[in-house]
Design goal:
Helices cover 45% and strands 15% of the residues. With 438 residues, the protein is α/β, with parallel strands linked by helices. The chain folds into 3 domains: 3-49, Transferase, Pyrimidine Nucleoside Phosphorylase, Chain A, domain 3 (Up-down Bundle), CATH 1.20.970.10; 79-155 and 191-324 and 430-435, Pyrimidine Nucleoside Phosphorylase, Chain A, domain 2 (3-Layer(aba) Sandwich), CATH 3.40.1030.10; 330-423, Pyrimidine nucleoside phosphorylase-like, C-terminal domain (Aldehyde Oxidoreductase, domain 3). α2 runs parallel beside α4 (52-63), α3 crosses α8 and α5 (91-100) runs parallel beside α11 (249-260). The radius of gyration is 22 Å and the shape is globular. The structure holds uracil (URA).
């Protein structure tokens, strides 16, 4: 086999075989095939796409380049959940304990935040004492005892994806559905869960800005999971505004706690119940409708909150945060962002809200940046709300190092206030539900 022939075939719109895909990916990982040939191949894929089988072979080759995480040491049904990332997306923190309170096992490997989106690991580390670097034995013990555990993604999961992603980043071949779905699914299928619920975000704060593209991506990932005989449900959900109110690490932890007390923002609570009901549905433990009732009940009766308390304690965190938010590092210096005129909030450039939080210190511009858990933004007015000039729209929690002027400028640019309200479609929470195996 010669790389140039494989590139030629794809360049001319042909279909690469399993062997050809393995040859290219493994050759790149081993250092036998140079960057420039893989770049040409990626660009050919970018323009010509891949069939569902090609996507599957690419996914499996990347997955098999690294470790496979065997979860058989955890009893019960293990359902994984993955979000493609957004602003204020603290879903794992609330959904995990919520579904664990209904009998599921959630054992997640999560990442850190970069750019305008936050990461679950950073959020959890804002809880004093919380450890995300835990041993394999601890990971399994906590999953079995509590039903919920989250560890930082260390190890060697899909190293081929890491190498290919870095190349895609500098050759402008990131945003192609085959490549994105294979990249995400190579990491998801490396963890041997019983099923996966995907939350594919779309809108101004997501990397899939348009709904049709997000649906295509969701369908592509569902097809890959089906070929792997993995149970899967994908929801395509709204990221045209931040999820809930809190953006920034400690603020988001607090909002997750409040949500499990039944006092969370409506959209965030609703999404947690929806994702959780789909996880339970997939597990076969309850039907979707029954699951929704149970989850709502477990918020009301405090069962989900108790799981969260035990989980925080099990991972070394100060579980008193459940009753005493003062334990969380949250800044007491607040700057107000107010409406410049009367009207309806008709558009929010959510990515800019995420960047505003980042420039306050809550996120990283580069992997090396150190984040400040105490800062962030509380988004008090969202799409469709009528405001008068001078009304409070958002609160900025700041530190001495925060670039407040830049954050305010970004928020000013992000918010559009007009005489007419936005279309209902823009405020819908869930656009599509795609169930695997149907
Ligand atoms: N997230 C991933 O993990 N991979 C992509 O290609 C895009 C987003």
């Amino acid at each position: 086999m010669r790389p140039v022939d494989i590139i030629h075939k794809k360049r001319n719109g042909g279909i690469n075989t399993k062997e050809e895909i393995e040859y290219m990916v493994n050759g790149y990982v081993n250092g036998d095939i140079p960057d420039y040939q893989i770049s040409a191949w990626l660009m050919s894929i970018f323009f010509n796409g891949m069939t569902k089988e090609e996507r599957y072979y690419l996914t499996m080759t990347m997955r098999d380049s690294g470790d496979i995480i065997d979860l058989s040491g955890i009893s019960g049904v293990k359902i994984d959940k993955h979000s493609t990332g957004g602003v204020g997306d603290k879903t794992t923190l609330a959904v995990g304990p919520l579904v664990a309170s209904a009998g599921l096992k959630v054992s997640k490997l999560s990442g850190r935040g970069l750019g305008h989106t936050g990461g679950t690991i950073d959020k959890l580390e804002s809880i004093p004492g919380f450890k995300t670097a835990i041993s394999k034995e601890e990971f399994f013990r906590i999953a079995n005892e509590i039903g919920m555990v989250v560890a930082g993604q260390t190890g060697n999961i899909a190293p081929a994806d890491k190498k290919l992603y870095a190349l895609r980043d500098v050759t402008d071949t990131v945003d192609e559905i085959s490549l994105i779905s294979a990249s995400i699914m190579s990491k998801k299928l490396a963890v041997e869960s019983d099923g996966i619920v995907l939350d594919v975000k779309t809108g101004s704060g997501a990397f899939m800005k348009n709904i049709d593209d997000a649906i295509k991506l969701a369908k592509s990932m569902v097809e890959i999971a089906e070929l792997n005989n993995r149970k899967i449900i994908a929801l395509v959900t709204n990221m045209d505004q931040p999820l809930g109110e809190a953006v920034g690490n400690s603020l988001e932890v607090l909002e997750a706690i409040e949500t499990l007390k039944g006092k969370g923002p409506e959209d965030f609570t609703e999404l947690c119940v929806e994702l959780g009901a789909n996880m339970l549905d997939l597990s076969g433990l309850y039907t979707y409708e029954k699951a929704k009732d149970i989850l709502r009940e477990n918020i009301k009766n405090g069962k989900a909150l108790e799981v969260m308390r035990k989980w925080i304690k099990a991972q070394g965190g100060d579980e008193r945060v459940i009753d005493n938010p003062k334990i969380l590092p949250i800044s007491d210096k607040i700057v107000e962002f107010k409406a410049e005129k009367d009207g309806y909030i008709s558009h929010i450039d959510t990515e800019k809200v995420g960047i505003a939080s980042m420039v306050l210190g809550a996120g990283r511009k580069t992997k090396e940046d150190i984040i400040d858990f105490s800062v962030g933004i509380k988004v008090l007015k969202k799409l469709g709300v009528k405001v008068n000039k001078g009304d409070l729209i958002a609160e900025l929690y700041i530190s001495e190092k925060s670039n407040v002027d830049e954050a305010l400028k970004l928020l000013n640019e992000a918010y559009e206030i007009t005489d007419v309200p936005p279309k209902e479609e823009k405020m819908k929470l869930i656009y599509e539900r795609i169930v695997g195996g149907k």
